[in-house]
Here is the input.
Amino acid sequence: MKQIPLYILITLFVATACNKTPENPTIAPYAETKLDENGGTWKTYILADGSEIPVPAPNAVASDAYKTELEQLKTVMSNATESDKEAVQFWGSNGTLRWHEIARELAANYNVPPNYNADGTYPLPDANNPTAYPRFPFANPPYASRAFALLAVAQYDALVTAWKAKFEYNRLAPYKNDSGITPLLPTNDLPSYPSEDAVVAAASREVLKFLFPGEVALLDERSTEHKNSRLWGGMNVQSDIDAGDSLGAAVAKRIIAYAKTDRMGAANKQADYPLLKADATARGFTAQWESVDIPARPPMLPFFGNVKPWNFTDDQKIALRPAAPYLPGTPEFEKDYQEMQDIAKNRTNEQFRIATYWADGAGSYTPPGHWNRKAAELILDNKWNEIRAARAMALMSTAVQDAGILCWHTKYYYLTQRPTTVDRDIKTSTGIPNFPGYTSGHSTFSAAAAEVLAYLFPSNASELTAMAKEASESRIYGCIHFRIDCEAGLDSGKKVGNFAVERGKNDGSE
Here is the structure.
């Protein structure tokens, strides 16, 4: 019987195994009761501040030009179809989080490792030809963490700028200026110029087009629908939308320029991987990780640990690196090894359930996406407005990427083995990641995310800490990691999260 190629099996798996990735939360539009009038003064990430990109003054509400816009808006609303009105409700339930939802879906769709060539080598995705096989990007956990962070920072910096202009010009929504306009969404007193939704749509659209260049048409379509929904719903006039689109695109341009210099371009420099192996050997780590794929697959992003972090410096990253793990032959190592053997032989149903729930492997939006979704749920539970939602996503997402940077730096500094490279007879309950073991990515990502979210949502702190612990232990139950990998990952992730928390405490929003 002819063997089915691996990439076809993976594609079928992605299409049929979506139940391992939780569904997106149900979002209903809600009234924003807190306006955060000082949002335009909050500390930005890439922009100098909320004044760096100027926003031109709008027409006055008493002007003929604005009155014409109000009449045009009534016409647009009267011509809206049922489908248009459904879009109003969809996008009116927090556009910031809707774009993160889109980003998670893209990350899952592109999280497909390529199959090998006839000569045993593996093809690389090509950013210049993103729709050819293998598609660009391969949205593995480090790539996904960076994508979510860049998206969140773009949204946040753009909204800080928008908030400054809103309260500088204070032009209220059209339904506040014309009693003949009945909006389709909950109302508030937030100034409507520039449109926060158009700002988010443009910033998100441009950053995601940069990250997923094969999805330009889709992203343009979603952005257009998002902006139009504000007209169909009577929430903005066209000049609100135009100013927001221009601003969001301008901010995205700055974020993309930053991304082009964040050292991600050298993260997959396979030619220099032997240097990492030699350095680890010189440090005494001679029993090194090896790919268990057949044929052996090049290690995943061996230099992602050199990508520029958001919330600490390169020198601080070195100081954060965990101490060396146990070496084979020591009593501590043998204890962890025995635990792996016992779990592999006697894994309980509950351990299997936990390992499967947190697997977040091929076809999922990865551990960073798992926590991205949790953050969205908490924001919705608390009915935060767009700028406060964007701040939360930026604080958590930059911490999660920083966690990945520290984790990958640690992995390729020590190059330690996974249980399955120590003993090929150990059976895992999930796929085996193609990179070294120490420290655990799940543990580091999760502890960083939980630390930031516990700061933002203190009433949920116990739940979040328990989630991070379960995510970490899931890798032990799956026989993917030794216990030391996970415990050190939790510790270092918590430290990473604290850097973002300190930023949050000093960003002017409290």
